[in-house]
């Protein structure tokens, strides 16, 4: 019988899985579709990856005194505070942003490997009451953050080309899905004229 994974190993596996899912949502798309905003607030696939690059670099690197060997221009010029971490500029290629994301994840993985879950640190930009924290809390934070944005990416990808994380054909063919959609629409329509 194989030994059971430790809590740290399990957490790391969840984080790796969410990262892989995020990268899979970008795979096979045209450059335009990776970049184009799909919501009124501008949410786009490459922007989500760019945003997570900052999170990986800082929450699982810098706050432990483990500065990455690279710089993130949107941090250096403070444009992050105007949302620059949430979209790709014309001069930021997919390769450039994915290389940064892979480097940030590799750097984060080395932090996770070298420290215990209880390793203390401080996140200076957090509220004072929560500022002092541990690797375990920050890993949980990264799992939640990456998974949340993976959910966004799932919806964006489906809106772009209909691709979903699982194979919709496992539940039914196109006709089945149209019937299913009509059933949900019909249920929602019963509340169309309700005031609240």
UniProtKB/TrEMBL annotation:
Database matches in SUPFAM superfamilies? DinB/YfiT-like putative metalloenzymes
Name listed for the protein in its UniProt record:
Putative damage-inducible protein DinB
> Which organism does this record belong to?
Microlunatus parietis
- Which lineage ranks, top first, belong to the organism behind this chain? Bacteria, Bacillati, Actinomycetota, Actinomycetes, Propionibacteriales
């Amino acid at each position: 019988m194989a030994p059971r994974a430790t809590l740290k190993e399990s957490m790391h596996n969840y984080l790796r899985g969410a990262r892989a899912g995020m990268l899979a949502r970008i795979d096979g798309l045209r450059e335009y579709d990776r970049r184009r905003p799909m919501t009124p607030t501008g949410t786009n696939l490459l922007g989500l990856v760019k945003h997570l690059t900052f999170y990986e670099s800082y929450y699982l690197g810098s706050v432990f005194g483990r500065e990455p060997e690279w710089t993130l221009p949107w941090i250096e010029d403070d444009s992050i505070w105007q949302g620059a971490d949430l979209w790709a500029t014309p001069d930021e290629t997919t390769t450039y942003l994915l290389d940064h994301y892979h480097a940030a994840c590799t750097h984060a993985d080395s932090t996770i490997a070298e420290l215990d879950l209880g390793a203390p640190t401080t996140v200076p930009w957090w509220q004072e009451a929560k500022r002092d924290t541990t690797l375990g809390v920050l890993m949980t934070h990264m799992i939640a953050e990456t998974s949340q944005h993976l959910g966004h990416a799932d919806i964006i990808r489906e809106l772009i080309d209909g691709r979903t994380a699982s194979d919709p054909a496992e539940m039914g063919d196109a006709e089945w899905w149209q019937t299913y959609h009509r059933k949900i629409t019909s249920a929602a329509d019963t509340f169309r004229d309700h005031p609240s």
